């Protein structure tokens, strides 16, 4: 895997269809000529096909916010990896903390979804992990990150240059408006890297994995994260809902 940074916008359920398309147009314009990082956006399901048309001819990647582990069947409301690829997606977020919190998604499900995406071969999974406030306060973060990675990825095989992105998102920082201290993120990313090395070996980790940070990143605090060891990019929520702000975050990341 190359050393290029990756920055992914997660628009969650924040925008109407019209607002989503307007934002996609603005980002398309703002990011003309942008280089130095892979940029992707993850709109809601009903917007994906129209956002794909807007982004056609650009280097901006299209992603989805979730995926189901089966390829087809009687699974009302679900979307398969094959369907996402057919719709033009190249990335998909798996196991976001909000889905773990509100929809009872667990790491058995996350494991199955990640396996389905890797078996598809045409999507890059963005697998989310991260501790909550109680786990941080009781110094259990290291164990939590280790356990979540084991549950999500154990037994999975990577073929060739298949990519996996690990998104570290401390739950207590998401939506708070305050990112964690960069030194704390650096430490967590080191734990993630060491765990992945134990699971897959350093060669595969260096070639096939990226580790990114997500949690209240903005143009005001992103500079503190630039240059951190084991930081390969960002998963951006609120700051990605405005084209200028998202551009500032991306631009800071590649300096």
Automatic annotation (TrEMBL):
Gene3D superfamilies: Aldolase class I. It is found in: Cytoplasm. Signal peptide: none annotated. It is an enzyme of class 5 (isomerase). Transmembrane segments: none annotated. GO terms for cellular component: cytosol. GO terms for biological process: gluconeogenesis; glyceraldehyde-3-phosphate biosynthetic process; glycerol catabolic process; glycolytic process. It holds the Pfam family TIM. Its main location: cytoplasm. InterPro entries: Aldolase_TIM (IPR013785), TIM_sf (IPR035990), Triosephosphate_isomerase (IPR000652), Triosephosphate_isomerase_AS (IPR020861). Pathway: Carbohydrate degradation; glycolysis; D-glyceraldehyde 3-phosphate from glycerone phosphate: step 1/1; Carbohydrate biosynthesis; gluconeogenesis. It comes from the Bacteria. It catalyses: D-glyceraldehyde 3-phosphate = dihydroxyacetone phosphate. Keywords: Cytoplasm, Gluconeogenesis, Glycolysis, Isomerase. Its EC number is 5.3.1.1. One of its GO terms (molecular function) is triose-phosphate isomerase activity. Homodimer. Belongs to the triosephosphate isomerase family. This is Triosephosphate isomerase.
